[in-house]
Specification:
elongated, 61% helix, alpha+beta, 2 domains, 4-stranded mixed β-sheet, Peroxidase, domain 1
Length: 177
């Protein structure tokens, strides 16, 4: 499984299975996955050990399970992480996190909206945009902010595959078409 598309598809299947195995513990599982990702980012040595083929699979899986227990992960996630490591699929951890976040949002009726702007938005403006979108969409909205210096001014909103261009660059392109 080398293609990005295949990797994402496999991660989505794992995420869906995890969500079905622990439907009442979605927030707890996501929190543990966040902690897992942060632990690996802060400790490259830990990541090296978990990926090292010279270390027995069972020892690596046990280490991963202990870390997950420490992070307060539900049993289904502890078992899944151990299985992923025993099957030499460590490469699935990051895509699994992203896929599980999307699966949780889908199950809980949360819509992710990506805001692209040239600078970080003030908290008050970001919250105003979030609450207005939640009112319009009649959904819970989670904002993900991305700074794109090429935008120059204004914002673009992305929801799934739909994009609303409100940047200065987009408006100038419309004028000169």
């Amino acid at each position: 499984m080398t293609s990005k598309t295949g990797l994402r598809a496999l991660a989505r299947r794992y995420a869906k299975g995890l969500a079905e195995a622990a439907p009442r513990e979605l927030g707890q599982a996501l929190s543990a996955l966040d902690g897992w990702k942060e632990s690996l980012d802060q400790s490259p040595r830990l990541k090296d050990i978990l990926m090292d083929p010279r270390v027995a699979k069972s020892a690596r899986a046990d280490l991963a399970r202990e870390l997950m227990k420490h992070l307060g992960a539900p049993a289904a996630l502890i078992n899944l992480i151990g299985l992923v490591i025993e099957d030499n699929r460590f490469f699935l951890i990051d895509p699994l996190h992203d896929a599980f976040l999307k699966e949780r949002e889908k199950r809980e009726g949360i819509q992710c909206v990506v805001i692209e702007s040239s600078v970080h938005l003030p908290d008050a403006l970001r919250e105003r945009i979030r609450s207005r979108l939640a009112e319009i969409l009649r959904l819970h909205v989670r904002i993900e902010e991305q700074v794109r210096p090429h935008i120059l001014g204004g914002i673009n909103l992305r929801m799934g595959s739909r994009v609303w261009y409100g940047s200065a660059v987009a408006r100038l392109e419309q004028v000169f078409r």
